[in-house]
């Protein structure tokens, strides 16, 4: 258990640090909405999450189920649907404001714009933290396939890379709207705190969920794909820089695929 917890804490701690690194851009840049860089980074994040959902989560879910004598596609499909429904429910209930949008989503609230922006990015980070935590927990189990550690490392690297522009995408608009730069940085950095929180929570529950690990892996994949389809890809194709969004998706998918195959 301690090894699993330590691995998940290290992996999600790295991704959190990448978010904080990106948020630090608020001290260097003035921040503009809707530019080529933001569109490219949104697409890149989508590509990373699509590839991670397939190589790091769904394929291992199928393999784990088959090793246990189950029909591989059943837990993969079932967990995928449950993960998407879980995030759909949170998305419908929790007030939030997606980057680049003027109208909040979720239940009506009196929250300020900065809080709504913070909540939106935090929602994205829940499935990412769960995914990294699950893979590190699996890699630390006795008799685990050594390739799992490489897969967990690849996933943490991929998520970490895309978290850098994500942190900037929170802090820069907040500073542009009048928030002090130190506070905007803090908000951007803290938006990534959901990853170590949910990653470590998964490890604490690993003793109970081990028999359902294929379902949990697919659950994380479904939640990640919901974020991609509902928010990242549409946001990457708004405005006149849509072509850069497509290029970002392709680059992100390629980067995550190479990381996963090379390290896993």
Protein model, in words:
It is a single chain. The chain is built from 10 helices and no strands. The protein has 264 residues and is an all-alpha fold. Helices cover 77% and strands 0% of the residues.
| End-to-end separation | 22 Å
Q: What is the succession of H and E elements?
A: HHHHHHHHHH
Give the CA-based shape: globular
Summarize the biggest pleated sheet. none
Rg from Cα: 18 Å
Structural class: mainly alpha
Helix content: over 70%
Strand content: under 5%
Query: Which stretches are low in confidence, meaning pLDDT under 50 for 5 or more residues running?
Result: none
Average pLDDT over all residues: 85
The total count of strands amounts to: 0
Please work out how many helical segments DSSP would assign.
10
Looking at how many chains there are and whether they match, the oligomeric state comes to: single chain
């Amino acid at each position: 258990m301690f090894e699993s917890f330590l691995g998940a804490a290290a992996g999600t701690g790295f991704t959190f640090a990448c978010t904080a690194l990106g948020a630090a851009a608020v001290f260097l840049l003035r921040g503009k909405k809707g530019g080529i860089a933001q569109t490219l980074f949104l697409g890149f994040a989508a590509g990373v999450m699509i590839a991670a959902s397939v190589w790091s989560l769904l394929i291992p879910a199928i393999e784990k189920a088959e090793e246990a004598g189950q029909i591989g596609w059943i837990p993969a499909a079932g967990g995928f649907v449950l993960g998407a429904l879980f995030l759909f429910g949170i998305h419908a209930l929790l007030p939030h404001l997606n980057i680049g949008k003027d109208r909040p989503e979720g239940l009506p609230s009196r929250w300020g714009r900065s809080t709504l922006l913070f909540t939106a990015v935090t929602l994205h980070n829940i499935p990412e933290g769960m995914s990294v935590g699950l893979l590190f927990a699996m890699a630390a189990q006795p008799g685990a396939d050594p390739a799992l550690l490489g897969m967990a490392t690849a996933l943490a690297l991929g998520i970490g890379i895309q978290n850098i522009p994500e942190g900037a995408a929170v802090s820069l608009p907040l500073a542009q709207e009048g928030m002090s730069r130190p506070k905007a940085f803090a908000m951007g950095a803290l938006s990534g705190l959901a990853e170590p929180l949910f990653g470590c929570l998964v490890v604490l529950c690993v003793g109970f969920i081990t028999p359902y690990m294929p379902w949990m892996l697919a659950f994380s994949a479904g939640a990640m794909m919901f974020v991609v389809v509902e928010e990242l890809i549409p946001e990457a194709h708004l405005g006149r820089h849509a072509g850069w969004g497509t290029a970002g998706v392709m680059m992100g998918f390629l980067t995550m695929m190479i990381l996963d195959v090379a390290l896993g």
